[in-house]
């Protein structure tokens, strides 16, 4: 109650519009707009995983993103990946959930996908919790609007990954490797 009074007080002080003036529809449009910033072309720059074989040559998460399109708040990603030496297209859809920044993806088992970037004109960071055959692994993706990203962005991505308790050897900078 105290909190409620406090926030009402703050709302009055700040002269905020009451919440009910915005319909559900307005809010969902707003959310959609936010994700639309993620659309268009991307490049895979750094991959990291708790299980390195998932992101090594021919691993299921060694994928090269081409672009993202956003529809009804769901993210459609178009990738290339290598199977038996051949580059094949891979189309994945991460479906929105009730939580902002959290998506569900069916690929190599199931995945909880979290989007974690604040600069969609520069880079996007996705953290996947992959559930496959009773095993849980993390896969972290750093995508860039350009094929190369600054050392500063890459370093921060690496530090975040290592802070989660994973080894530096499990981070692969693939900006220099053949992207199919
Ligand atoms: C690591 O990934 C490989 C597939 O590339 C899988 O066969 C193996 O079971 C996984 N290991 C663990 C500990 O998750
Ligand atoms: C995404 O990339 C693929 C492959 O390059 C292309 O066929 C498709 O038209 C692109 N989609 C958009 C929306 O740019």
Report on this structure:
The protein has 180 residues and is an alpha+beta fold. It has one domain: Beta Barrel (Lipocalin), CATH 2.40.128. Helices cover 22% and strands 41% of the residues. Strand 6 and strand 7 (110-115) form a beta hairpin. The longest helix is centred in the first third of the chain and has 13 residues, at 2-14. It is globular and about 40 Å long. The chain starts with a helix and ends in a 7-residue tail after the last strand. One 2-acetamido-2-deoxy-beta-D-glucopyranose binds at residues 51, 53-54, 59, 135, 137.
CATH class membership? Mainly Beta
Q: Which runs of at least 5 residues are low in confidence (pLDDT < 50)? A: 1-22
Main beta-sheet strand count, sense and barrel state: 10 strands, antiparallel
> What form results from the Cα inertia axes?
globular
Derived from helix and strand composition plus strand pairing, the structural class reads alpha+beta
- Main sheet strand line-up: 1-3-4-5-6-7-8-9-2-10
- Total count of strands: 10
Count of DSSP H/I helices = 3
How far apart are the termini? 59 Å
At the fourth level of CATH, the homologous superfamily is Calycin beta-barrel core domain
Query: Which ligands, by name, code or SMILES, are bound?
Result: 2-acetamido-2-deoxy-beta-D-glucopyranose
Q: What is the CATH architecture term?
A: Beta Barrel
Radius of gyration: 19 Å
Q: Number of folding domains?
A: 1
What fraction of residues sit in β-strands? Answer: 35-45%
* Mean residue pLDDT: 86
Family: Belongs to the calycin superfamily. Lipocalin family.
Keywords: Disulfide bond, Milk protein, Secreted, Signal
Organism: Vombatus ursinus
GO molecular function, one term: small molecule binding
């Amino acid at each position: 109650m105290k909190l409620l009074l406090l926030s009402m007080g703050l709302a009055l002080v700040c002269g905020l519009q009451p919440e009910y003036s915005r319909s559900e529809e307005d809010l969902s449009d707003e959310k959609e707009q936010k994700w639309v910033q993620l659309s268009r072309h991307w490049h895979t720059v750094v991959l990291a995983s708790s299980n390195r074989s998932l992101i090594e040559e021919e691993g299921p998460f060694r994928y090269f993103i081409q672009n993202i399109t956003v529809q009804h708040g769901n993210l459609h990603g178009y990738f290339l990946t290598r199977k038996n030496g051949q580059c094949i297209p891979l189309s994945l859809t991460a479906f929105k959930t009730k939580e902002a920044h959290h998506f569900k993806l069916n690929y190599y088992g199931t995945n909880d996908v979290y989007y974690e970037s604040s600069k969609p004109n520069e880079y996007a960071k996705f953290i996947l919790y992959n559930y496959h055959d009773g095993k849980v692994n993390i896969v972290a993706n750093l995508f860039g609007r350009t094929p190369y990203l600054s050392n500063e962005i890459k370093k921060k991505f690496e530090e975040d990954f290592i802070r989660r308790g994973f080894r530096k050897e499990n981070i692969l900078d693939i900006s220099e490797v053949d992207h199919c």
